[in-house]
Amino acid sequence: MSHGAGTTGRWSRDLFRKSSRSNGSGNGNCVAVAVVGGDVALGDTKSPVADSYASLRVSTADLGALVTGIKSGDLA
Question: What is the pTM of this model?
Answer without folding.
Answer: 0.66
